[in-house]
Structures are given as structure tokens and as C-alpha cells.
Amino acid sequence: MIQYGDTMILFEDGKPKQFLTVTQGQTYQNKYGAYHHYTFLVKPGEEILSKNGTGPIYLMTPNPHLITETVPHKTQILFMADISMIILKLCLKPGQRVIESGTGSGSLSCSLAAAVGHKGRLFTYEFNKERANNGKELFAKLKINQATCFWRDVYANGFLKGEDTENQGEFPQESSIDAIFLDLPQPWLALDHSKKMIKKGGRICCFSPCIEQVQKTALELKQQGWKNLETLECLKRHFERRVKQEQSLFDDVQKKVCTDQNKRVTYSAGINQAYGHTGYLTFAQYI
Amino acid sequence: MEIIEEDTWVCLEDNRNESKIVKVNEKKMVGWRKHKFDIGVLLHKQYNTFWKVDKTNAVVEISSDQFYDNTDLDNQIDDANIEITKTNKDLFDFNDSQKLTQEEILSLKKQKEGEEIVDEVIQNSKTFEQKTEFSKAKYLKRKKEKYICCFMVLKTTIENVHKTQFLETPQKLNFMRVDSLAFFMQLSSITQNSNILMFDNANGIAVSAVAERLDGEGSISTVFWNHTKSNLRDYWPIQQMNFSEEILKSIKLIKNLEDIEKNENKYTHLLIAGEFKFTEIFEKYLKLVAVGGIIVVFSTYLEKLHEVAEQLLSSGLCGKIDVLDSFMRYHQVLENRTHPKVEMNAFGGYLLQTYKLK
Ligand SMILES: C[S@@+](CC[C@H](N)C(=O)[O-])C[C@H]1O[C@@H](n2cnc3c(N)ncnc32)[C@H](O)[C@@H]1O
To answer: Can you give the residue ranges of the tRNA (adenine(58)-N(1))-methyltransferase catalytic subunit TRM61 C-terminal domain (chain A) (predicted)?
Structure first.
């Protein structure tokens, strides 16, 4: 059962739309009408109607995929295609300890945290104070207890416990981390620090939009002795089903004589609107 | 440091970037790359170590430098700072006029180490010296890959178990490319305590990935294609992942289809990986999925997914239905020669995802 204080994903018109925190005394308003929050105290996924009995909406339990679709954007975020590959190729599994920087909007963080599960840990670092606080709030709201967000410039200060006393919570130890992910403008500046943290056999992934960044990162990775480098890009493409009524060349349109009068055929078509590029993922292993 | 125990499956990744998954037991012979060697040598050794098969077919440990000297050779070519303004002006076609006969090379293999053979082959090539630095390096790469057999020992992961099988017989994985498997997992958004109904016709690779994520906290009722006679042990990815007892216990193999309906709780996920008659699955089992439940289907055929989409749409029980695929390619990244890799696997399959809303 959904309770007051829970943050859920709101579905409108059958699609994920936004985060919604169920709060006593509030109403939600959309084009179909108003919805009292007290009508939200049902099972996740159950149909909820507006006061005028229209416009079914649904409150779904947040999961990594839905979070990425609806998380408020404070920065450019990573999407499902890149996230999928990052998690699979970093070989994340429950119980592992992972480092991420920067936190940005937390889209990837939530997926990383889910992949390591409640027995694992995610340490995520962000040097913009507002975003670092946003990260902390996000984890609290979504009850992602295995994730800790630090306010830190990782180029300068790395990942270990330091002088910055405003950062509370458990810090990771040297050589204790299974995987590291960097989505920073200059990932090569954080590789020295990363090397300190990673376990033998651990993996790193750097995301960069530009190939020049990738080249610098790859060069630095090689110089530092990281092995098994691999760079890839991954994009998703959507398809839709279209129903067509086909007009034969041989039909006499004037006389309205059609050979297959009611012939409707369904075809698949790719959807044109898509990302042509997000970034390159560069993976390496520390041996 | 973790040590390789008896009866554990490990992944061997060689200097050609190919791999093999083997179970380590004392005095166990395995055949790979025309060699037959005793893999038992790896018992009680560390992971992420490097090994070479020598001329007597013995497996001996080598340093990481020795390994990488014979692997990742494209990278070394770049380091050699090769002039990139090559011209075709002085280039002429030549066969590799090798003075050694096939028999001579074969007998060399018994007497000498891989590195020594490579040296001899080069010395006996009439044309090696006339090659450009670049094609010398390429030649060396080919010969090293051919005559030197060395590998690294890794823990098995979903990624390397998948990769090994996909290179060999992708049809056994229902042509589910690595990115499709990754999408499948992300779209399924498995969280602990999920109660999953799965249909896997990709030899258990999808079930393994889901089971690993579930980590024993939750349950998977899975139907394999030949469900009446199947046994979990028949599905090599499940074995190769060295799952703990808890994880194995969370996988319930359905042999009698009626058992699917006997589950007390509704299913939080209905996941299908590979070819089944999808419409009959949804006709019978969609009602067993809880409100808010996640539905994901992987197929090689777009039309089949659209058939499902139509069925789900007309049932009126589901939200927006996404049908998608993935475009993925690898890139060669070198200082002066960065470009998408020439070889790519151009087709990875299609996925459908939706939520049950009623
Ligand atoms: C593109 S965003 C990351 C988005 C994130 N991956 C997501 O999916 O939401 C990059 C973030 O890195 C942060 N950043 C840049 N340089 C940093 C540094 N030196 N230390 C820590 N964070 C940094 C930026 O403030 C920004 O929020």
C-alpha cells in the first residue's frame, strides 16, 4: 500500500510522467481534473480516477528504468541504452562497492545502486553543491540507503576521506572498490585517484561525448597500466506499428472499384526521432 | 585475494581476445586452440593471472608484461609511432614467400616455444624486410596470435559467459547480442523480492542474469523451451556462473505448466527471452501478473513483437508499449587512428517493454 511520504512515479496516459510525493492534504491537477492525494493510498499500479471520474492515472513503485525516464534534469543525464551497457560491462552484482562521479541528476546513480543492491554500496561524488544536495535528497526520497553522495571536487581531492568535514558518512577505503564510473568533462584527471581505489581485477568506465576526450582518456588509462581497453557507443531505436490502407495502382478510383476494398495492412516502421549520439563508453580493467 | 577452488568455472581469455569457459579440477585435460593441456594447474592460484601453454603443452605462469607483449597488438602498433603518411607508390603485391615448409613449421612447434617460432618464421620470410613498418607490425601480430598461446584467468561474469558463447554459436543464445541482454535487464528493472515468471529460450543466459541480480532474494519460476525434460544442470550459463546455493534455490524450474498457475502471489515480472509462441503465453498468463508488473519480451523478429503489442493493446490492461532495438558498435581508439571498428555485429534483436496497469 502506498503511504503518505512515499515518492512514486506518476503514469499519465499510460506513460511515466513525473515523480510524485504523496502528501496529506494535497491535490494533483492535470487536464482531466483534480485528484486528492488521499485517493492515492492504494496499491502501486492501481487505477486512480480524478474527482470527475475521468483520466485514470497510476502511481508506480520507482525502479531504475522509470527513475531515468522521470528524474528531474539538473544536468544532462545518462539514458537507458548507456546505463544498460555500463552495468553489464562493469559486471556489477549485488554486494559490490562502486564509485561514481559526477552525480549530476542521479539518473545513473539509481541504476548503479540497484545493481549492487542493499548489500552493496554506491559512493557518488559531485562538486556542485546544489547537485550534491539534490543527490542526497533523491536517495532519501527513494529510500536508496546503500548510496552516499559527497560534495567534492574529485580532480583535486579524489575519493578518500579528507579534510572536508562537511562530508558525513562512511568513505571508501583504498583498493576496496569493484567498479568506478566517471561522467566528468576531463575523466583523465581523476584516473590517478581511481587507481588508488580500485581492487585488482576491478573495472572502470568513462563516458565522454567527444572523441578527443576518449583519446585522452585512453592514452592516460594505458599509461597508468589499465588493461583490456574497449570503447563503444550504444543507442536505442524505437519502432511503431502503423496501419495502412493500401491503394492499388489498378483500382479504378473514379468508379470507386477497389480490388481489396477493406484491406488494411500493418507495418513496422522505425521512429525517426532519436538520439544520433550520446557519448562513448570506454572500459578498462585494473590488473 | 581470492583463489581458484576445485570445481569452479573460470574464464580463459587469450591473446587473440577469444575466450573459453572451463571448470577447474585436478588433472583435468582441456582442448583449446589445437593444444591439449592440464587446467588443474590453476587450482588454488589467483584470479587475474597470466598463463602460457608451452611446447610440451604444459601450462606455466607468465608475467602480465609477457602476456600483453603478445596481445592487444594493435595498440603496440600505434605506440611504435608509425608514419601515417604511407603511400602506395612503392608497394607491390607479394605472397608471403615463406622458406619454411608446413612440415618444418609443424615440427618446430614440438621443439620450440611460440616466441622462437615467430622469430624463425620472420627470419625465413623473404619479404618481411621489404614491408613498411606498419605491415611489419601487422605481420608480427598475425604470427604471434597464431603461434603463441597464452591466456588470462578471470572469474566468470554474465558478460564473459555470454561473450564466449556468442562468438561460438550465437544461435544458442537466440542471437541475443550483449546490448540486448543489457537492455533486457535494465527494462526488467529487477529489484530484490521480485517474483518473476520467465520463459527462456536463450539457454538460460537471461535467467542467469536475472538470478544474479536477484541474489537469492525473491523467486524466478522459469520455463525452458523443452520444459518437460529439462534440468537446471543442462543450462550451462547457470552452471558457469558458480551460483551459491541460495541463488540456485531461487530458480524454480517449471516442468509441468500447471505449476505456473499454482503460485500463491501474483508475478511482479513476466519476462520472455527468445522464441516462443508469445500470444499464447499472454493469453494464458497475463492475468497472473500483478498490477504494476513489468513485461519484457526479447525476440529476433520485429513482427512477432508487434503481434504481442497489438494483443496487449486490445486487452486494455497495459500502459504504453515500447518496441525497440539497439545500435551498438565498438571503436578502435589509437592516437592517430581512431574509427569505428570495421567488423561489427549489425543485428542484435528486438525488445518489447510495458507495464501492466489493470
Ligand atoms: C553530465 S553530469 C552527470 C550526469 C549523471 N551521469 C546522470 O546520469 O545524471 C556531470 C557532473 O559532473 C560534475 N563534475 C564536473 N567536474 C567535477 C569534479 N571535478 N568533481 C566532481 N564533480 C564534477 C558536474 O557538476 C556535473 O553535475
So the answer is: 57-264
A114–B186 C-beta distance less than 8 A: no
Select from A65, A93, A236 the Cβ nearest to the Cβ of B324.
A236
Query: Contacts of residue A15 in chain B, CB cutoff 8 Å?
Result: 319-320
Q: Which domains does chain B have, with CATH numbers?
A: 1-155 (no CATH), 166-356 (3.40.50.150)
Instruction: Indicate the residue of A118, A231, A236 with minimum beta-carbon distance to B333.
Output: A231
- B294 interfaces chain A, CB cutoff of 8 Å: yes
CATH assignment of the domain containing A228: 3.40.50.150
The number of folded domains in chain A is 2
For atom 1 of ligand 1, the residue with the nearest CA is A76
- If asked whether residues A105 and A178 sit together in one domain, one would say yes
Which residue has its alpha carbon closest to ligand 1 atom 5?
A: A104
Prediction pTM value: 0.94
Q: Name B258's Cβ contacts closer than 8 Å, sequence gap at least 6.
A: none
**Residue among A111, A113, A135 nearest A125 (CA):** A135
Q: Same structural domain for residues A43 and A160? A: no
Residue A206 shares a structural domain with residue A230: yes
User: Considering chain B, what is the average pLDDT of its residues?
Assistant: 89
Atom of ligand 1 nearest to the CA of A153: 20
Q: Which domain holds residue A45?
A: 7-61
Angle at B203 between CA B198 and CA B204, to 5 degrees: 45
Predicted confidence (pLDDT) per residue in A45-103, tens digit:
999 999 999 999 999 999 999 999 999 999 999 999 999 999 999 999 999 999 999 99
Nearest to B319 by CA among B351, B290, B281, B292: B292
In angstroms, what separates the C-alpha of B226 from chain A's closest C-alpha?
28
Position B108, amino acid: L
Q: What SS3 class is residue B188?
A: helix
Alpha-carbon span B154 to B5, nearest angstrom: 13
Torsion of CA B187, B193, B194, B198, to 10 degrees: 110
Q: Which atom number of ligand 1 is nearest to the Cα of residue A73?
A: 9
Residue B182 has pLDDT above 80, yes or no: yes
Q: Is A153 annotated as a binding residue?
A: yes
Is A231 found in the same domain as A94? Answer: yes
3-state secondary structure of B50: strand
Pair (A206, A154) in one structural domain: yes
The three cell numbers of residue A51 are 474527482
Last residue of a domain, one of A46, A61, A76: A61
Same-domain pairing of A147 and A78: yes
Same domain as A119, residue A166: yes
CATH of the domain at A34: 3.10.330.20
The set of residues, in sequence order, having a beta carbon less than 8 Å from that of B343 and lying 6+ positions away, is: none
| Segment among A10-19, A111-120, B139-148, B246-255 with least mean pLDDT | B139-148
Question: A269 CB near a chain B CB, below 8 Å?
Answer: no
Of all residues in chain A, the one with the smallest CA distance to B313 is A14
Q: Tell the residue nearest (CA) to atom 19 of ligand 1.
A: A153
Instruction: Please write the tens of the pLDDT for every residue from B143-162.
Output: 888 889 999 999 999 999 99
Q: Is B213 on the interface with A (CB under 8 A)?
A: yes
The verdict on residue A267 lying in a domain is no
Residues of B in contact with A228 (CB under 8 A): 72
Nearest to A231 among B306, B330, B357 (CB): B330
